[in-house]
Amino acid sequence: MKNLLNVRRHDRQYQFGAALVLYEIAAVFVLLCLYLIIGIYVMAFVTSLSVLMCLMCYYFFVRGKARVANVIGMILIFYTGFIGDYLLGWQCGYHYYIVCMFPLIIASESLSRRVKIASLPVLIVVYAVIMQIIMNTKPSVALPYPVDGIIGELNMFLAVGAIAFALFWYSAAATQNEDKLKDMGDKMNLLANTDQLTGLPNRRCLYQRISQSMNGLGAIYDTMVLGMADIDDFKRINDTYGHLCGDEVLVEMSDRIKRSLRKRDVVGRWGGEEFLFILPDTGLVEGTEIIERIQRAIKEEIFVECGSRISVTMTIGIVECVVGSVFSDVIRQIDKNLYAGKRSGKSCIVGHGVRQSQ
Fold this sequence. Notes:
The chain is of the alpha+beta class. It has 2 domains: 2-189, no CATH class; 203-354, Alpha-Beta Plaits, CATH 3.30.70.270. 64% of the residues lie in helices and 12% in strands. It has 13 helices and 7 strands. It has helices at 2-7, 12-38, 41-62, 66-88, 96-99, 101-107, 113-135, 147-192, 203-215, 234-241, 243-260, 284-299, 327-343; strands at residues 223-231, 266-271, 274-280, 303-305, 308-310, 314-322, 349-354. The protein has a 5-stranded mixed sheet, sandwiched between helices. A two-stranded antiparallel sheet has the order 4-5. The longest helix is centred in the middle third of the chain and has 46 residues, at 147-192. It is rod-shaped and about 105 Å long. 33% of the residues are buried.
């Protein structure tokens, strides 16, 4: 079992099959010992063949040949169920193993829904035929009392255990599938809200963050500051050093901006070479100081990217938001402040307060 888990640690179907085979090996080994103790050597021989088939199932599961193992397993179940009851009588309960086929087929992940639906009525017919044959046939081996009852109860216990194991695994597999779907949904949501190049929140995510922050106005805090930064002459950087170097500049700037902000602040990539800042619970004066800290981190350090030393500056427009500020008006004012800074010589901060009612 340890070898199997090492080879196929993430394959539930193989783990389930191998664990069930080990359970069957233990069950038939108990019966083998019982028949040897009471001297019923015919059933000991039949059970020995069952042990051999169980070992073959496990061997093929470990080798990754699940279909071969499944076929041998089905032959084993019908062989044990029919031969056991045929020789000892139906009261010994070997037909219970055939009943186990129903939940095992339902729990199987390797079978399609169509195959499962088609298999169930076939199993019912086969089971009915086998039971009819056994009920009308006199047992070949007479078991002393109360051995027949003990074997019947033991077989019923083992069969119920196999069914419980299958249902438990099916439930665990369903739970695991739900967890995987949730994790996949979380990953897809993260990808949908993250800029692939910089790892910052993208424009879609920023809209949500701005909405959340503006909803906090008046309830959690009275003011907040939004800022939009644009790298000056970024086209010249791309044209001179290449777009790969331009991408590296964007990544480096993203890292330096994040290090310059407070924990509660948010920065994201608005698009192209534009970044948007969300500074909750912040007034225009304090917000300007934070933006100036970002400017110093950008201006006072030289970027060394693609083997070149590149000096980068940013023009930033900021707006103070208060209770009643309208999102569209805020973004419009940020754009005006940003372009006013571009016209006045770039590498500057232009601020303005917006106080409009919805």
